[in-house]
Amino acid sequence: MRFQIILRYVGIVLLVNAVFLFLSAAISFFAGDSAFFPLSYTGLVSALFGVFPFVFVPPVKEISNREGFAILVSSWLLACLFGMLPYLLWGGEFTLTKAWFESVSGFTTTGSSILRDIEALPAGLLFWRSATHWIGGVGIIIFALAVMPSLGKVGMALYRAEISPLAAMNFHFQT
Hints:
Elements lengths: L2 H29 L4 H21 L8 H26 L5 H12 L15 H29 L1 H16 L7
């Protein structure tokens, strides 16, 4: 298994996270709320961890099934890990467990929350929370349209793994 290739694709996911974190930080800055620094710091860390493998690891045409699944699992875990950092750094009622739950809930688009009063969050964190839901919801679409064709044979295996919940709801796809 080529770990550098896994790092490259996970780096792309972290760069997407960084874009939305910086956008959230900008909203926080203009709103003048207390979440600007937590969002900015997390965006910077996410961008740094994402840009190095993206820049220094050349793209490849084919990856193995094993590498593809490692990319998928690593991307979800690291996106959730970096996604919880703004909540932790901001503090408030967020503990490690609550921040992890809120992040995973966003990226998996379950919509669950541990917060008693969601609207009490600063505008930047509210936007970040909404962005995680959007990233999670559109993630399968981007994955299917942008990443899958570049993965070759492993793309279809990953496509079937990601799309199986939709297939269970009687959606029909031509493959």
